[in-house]
Write a structure and sequence with these properties.
Strand content: 15-25%
CATH superfamily: Gcn5-related N-acetyltransferase (GNAT)
Mean pLDDT: 84
Low-confidence stretches: none
Structural class: alpha+beta
Number of domains: 1
Largest sheet: 5 strands, mixed
Radius of gyration: 15 Å
Length: 144
């Protein structure tokens, strides 16, 4: 498994992962993923992303987010927006996360905010806590 920064040529592979994520998780929440907007986000945030690919050059994982500053102290924060690993390769997800953490440290980012849908919530909560994350907040959504 290779973890690397994506290029513009990787966008079709990343979009396939977003489609899988949509079908596996997002559809249950009745949220619609606009592929044009998703592509726009990915293209605009390649610097803040990493991908996992197999030796055969298949993209099987991606993590991307935005870097902003915390409004109360102006420290840089990485806010994860997309993190998805193909089901066949989930055991490599931690390598992708650890690579992101290292990248953030090298760039002076002191905090990473990771989120998850309420899909496998207890399992994901245990995962994050076991890797040094603390629960920050819980969000709710209402379809209007």
């Amino acid at each position: 498994m290779i973890i690397r920064k994506p290029t513009i040529l990787d966008i079709p592979g990343i979009m396939k992962l977003i489609d899988k994520f949509q079908k596996e998780v997002i559809d249950d929440f009745k949220l619609f993923c606009n592929n044009e907007k998703a592509r726009e986000f990915i293209e605009g945030n390649l610097e803040n992303a990493l991908i996992a690919e197999t030796e055969n050059k298949e993209i099987v994982g991606a993590i991307s987010g935005i870097i902003s500053t915390y409004p109360l102290n102006n420290e840089p924060i990485y806010q994860e927006i997309i993190w998805y690993i193909d089901k066949r390769y989930r055991r490599f997800g931690i390598r992708l996360l650890q690579s992101l953490e290292e990248k953030c440290k090298k760039n002076g980012i002191k905090h990473i905010i990771m989120v998850h849908m309420n899909y496998k919530a207890e399992e994901l909560k245990k995962f994050y806590i076991s890797h040094g994350y603390k629960e920050l907040e819980t969000q709710y959504i209402k379809n209007l």
